[in-house]
Amino acid sequence: MSDNNQWVEAGALADIPRSGARPLNTSGGVIAVFRTCDDQVFATGNKCPHRGGPLAQGMVYGQRVQCAMHGLNIDLAAGKAVAPDVGCVETYPVKVENGRIWVNLVPVAASSCACAA
Length: 117
What we know:
Blueprint: E1 7-12, E2 20-26, E3 29-35, E4 41-45, E5 59-61, E6 64-66, E7 73-75, E8 91-92, E9 94-97, E10 100-104
Antiparallel strand pairs: 1-10, 2-3, 3-4, 4-8, 5-6, 6-7, 9-10
């Protein structure tokens, strides 16, 4: 199945501060787009698996985000909570072209985790 038509522009890389995030509103819900201090970009579902808090409002450090509501830590690359926390969020393919961020709306399959909405 081709997913070429599933890419949406999420804005300019420069619009997200280093170690920051922005919500991306889509027809399927909100995706959180993160920029690390070394300019890596990740996208996950925006709802924390603990209590549904908005991950785009969390604190980004390294390749992790800490939920602003209750402190649950998520690995941005894998979408999984960092032990001792449990849970996961969907992750989405991301690419940066000419300074613009693109997010694929087809999530990466979460193989060993039943993601909470």
